[in-house]
Fold each of these.
Amino acid sequence: MMAHLKPTPPEPIVLSLRDRRNVVELPYRGVSIQPFDGEMTESAIMARLLGREAYRRTNVIVLRGTDDAYALVAVESRDRGPLFARIDQVEVLALPDSCRFVVDPDTDCANPSALARLAERSGVGPDGTLICQGKYDHVNFIHHADPLVIRVIEVSPPDPPKLFQLIEHVLTYADLPPMKIELERIELKDLAAKARPKAFPVPCRSGGLDDLSAPVYFLDERPAIREDWMLIGCERSLQFHRHYYGDEPPRIEMCPRAIAGARNALTMLNCCLLEFGTERDNNVMVVPWGSDLAMVEQALKEIVCYAR
């Protein structure tokens, strides 16, 4: 006699995004925006969507109701093979009382840090949800934005400082969680204004320090005459000076690492004495002075791992 096997029940689908922080859909082709008629309650939304079909790449639906009311819903299907798949699970992430829809053509919807920045500017806190119609009229969201805050300490000029700009650029493409970058600027001209030497040697011409209260010399050009001057530079510049002239002049410190000291907050800065790779000193991540985008990206990823 042939035994009849009982069919195996399908595995339950569990969505668990509602209470998470920094939820962003990437790539954002997984976001669909759809009109919704009727009362925007959790029960009404679930009743409307469960069992209906959606394009197989849709993971999140932005529901647009009347009177600029919006809700955000995650959906899941057991079988995403067909072009349109049955919605088998619905999780309402946010209802109109915690959703804000913002049109901002300058915001890249593929940049989580940009979405977090827009959320803060728009008054959407860590318990709210921002839906953004951004560049190219594309739509994405950030749910419970809570970006990782990183303090960047750097000298100026140049303005804006290079490391700060490199970090901002890396955040436009790297696979990183939302970050809020706070610049702590060390104004070299303010430091120089407190001194009255006969001359200033500075590390090089690219530093933007060619307009000070006394004649300026460029240490990398190895001035032929050792003047009665005050050096604006770091320990590496002092090493150059000792090599060139055999002595140590009075000096205005310009090394971000030396000026910053120990920090309680997550911090990133550069240092000439670090020539290759990255280095972490507790909460402080250090990169070489001449860092490129790859070095900065690696340093940011190390900060993320440390902060977890």
Note: The longest helix spans residues 293-307.
Amino acid sequence: MKTAFSTKNITAFIAATLALGSITFGVTSRSFFREHRSNKLAASSNKHPSLILWAWERPTDLTFIDRNRIAVAFLARTIHLQGNDVFTRPRLQPLKLPEGVTVVAVARVESDAVKKPELSNEQGSKLVVAITEMASLPNVASIQIDFDATHSERAFYREVIMAVRRHLPKRVGLSITALASWCMDDDWLSDLPIDEAVPMLFRMAADGKEIANRLDGGEDFTSPLCRHSVGISTDEPRQNLSSSRRLYVFSPDPWTASSVRSIMESRK
């Protein structure tokens, strides 16, 4: 497998697809259709509020949130790797947000279980484009990649991450979600050019209970990139989370003012 993705190909793909990405992006809030973004948008996720709500693929209205205290990480597109192909599906459900809220565009990357991805140079270049072009979506301050890469996909994923960072504008931050095991003894993240890796402390694998017990016992994540934030779900609450770390929260149910208020109160 070649690991150096073609800059020429990536640049050409971006030029051809930026307009399409902005047209197919299904967001209904008026503020999302501005043609220009403020130069004051933070390039690092350190500028984000301490609470970020994940907004997945369902009709979502978060116009009631306090934009100064809460940011939104929304599923912008799902990217499917199959053979040597890259299939991109844009967000299809409406998303309503308050004007001026900090926004993180999330790309969910999935590998086909039957026709496994070839992980070729060409496929890597296409994936980099599919992720990088999200930076052109209005009001996006940061991009987050959500990919549960297997061990055999890690070298490919590392090259994708590095290429994405090279092609993103400096003002746009970059983060990834991370299996909790990646942040402990299986650390392969520490030298990646990202702002943070968000440990996912819900829907954990077989070693989840052991990792949870270690964290409850006072251990911290091995990877420094995993020490800035954590990710939880409303139906799997966790105790003793550090208030100094950014909290990403997923909800299997539609967000309501009540459910958001409960999270805010638990952070006090």
Note: Confidence is low (pLDDT under 50) at residues 6-43.
Amino acid sequence: MMKNVSYEEARDTISSKEIEQINTMKEHTSSYIGKIMVSILFALLLCLPAINYYPIYPAVACILIGSLLIRYVALQPIFKVTNYNLVLYLVWQTAAIFFMIVFLRVEADRYHLIPLVYIILGYGGSILLIRARVNTYVKEIFETTAKSGKKVFSNIITKILGAFLVLAVIAVLFYRGNKWWLMNMDTAVGNSSFLEYVVWGIGLFILLIGFTLLPTLLFSPSQYVKARLIGKYAEEFRKAYRFTEKEWYGEK
């Protein structure tokens, strides 16, 4: 959809103040790299528990996260600034997905296919949600059309995830404050019915989806779209604001 956005439209969307801010912020790219590296360390810590059950998957996570870091460091300073939000999101999305596979261990799954299917669906679902949010933003900015179904859907999902995050925090605080009596509760269910198993299964499935898509709240459609447009029309913006190549792109 952004392929049809002209430079004139991009220039009207990205203000001169934003261009000046980006140009100033590119002088401090070391802080961006530092934040990414700290996030990567936490992400790797979240991925490590899975090594007890699926050694191959934490290795894959390390490769994915490592490649993200290498590609980010290789970017020119201005693109380090514009792509920071996207890389940060991808790091935490990877961490969430590879952390959740710990809870998908099934004895009968000898070939570890369940985590593989979950990883594929996890990335697929998050990409679809991100794409819907980006398309919604592009339509809001560059098209004067009525509210579409996709816009409503992406907004609803985002609000649900926000509510899920709040409930998760409340649940953690509640557990910490009432841990002593929760641990002493009699949870024995001698005659658990099929319906109870179904309810628990649905509840766990909802939790799995919620925690998998939670990192999408970090993603900013506006920053992503503007980063793509600046990348697409980098030379046009540079010439319009009369920057030299060194002033605009910076030094690696």
Note: The CA atoms of residues 121 and 127 lie 10 Å apart.
Amino acid sequence: MKKRILLSMLVLLLMSTSAAAAHPGRTDSKGGHTCRTNCERWGLKYGEYHYHNGGSSSSSSGGSAASKSSAPKSSSSSASKPKESKPAYVKSGLKVFINGSALQFGSDPIIENNTNLVPLREIAERMGAQVSWNKSAGAIGVQRENYKMTLTLGSKTVYYNGKAETIAAPPRVINGVTYVPVQVFARGLGASLSYDASANALRITL
């Protein structure tokens, strides 16, 4: 009788130990189920399918698998070249004569905003004038006999023998060459100018 009682107690003890090691949830025909309660307590993830008999566990998808979406390939269009902007000036083709002799330019005269601009030094020195340059002030001095003029890069104000006047366009430097309006040679260096439109020719007479 005592043996039966001890055997019954041993069976109950084994069943209680097994129950303590498990966690709530019915198992399926394979001996496993999906964890829904106190999963972290048992070292499981919520929705993880596992076995109570020591089988390997697997994570449940818990729903339909996300379909793989492939991003559409973006067609790389060839970058169009930017339109080249036209320069602010163009070569004028102006011919210059000093006392009847044609001047051969090293730098071509240009036209900008309907104003003829010519290389200052080439014409001034051909007229017998001296050209000086004050780099710190950006000022250009030109003198011929008793005529003296002072110009400043980027400024329309010019001084003829110390008297300020306004010219059509400011002196500017292009490719290392200083360009000025043709009018400065008449007022600044005492020359007379005449323009032949049919021949596109400027005649300077001293």
Note: Helices lie at 2-21, 120-126, 184-189.
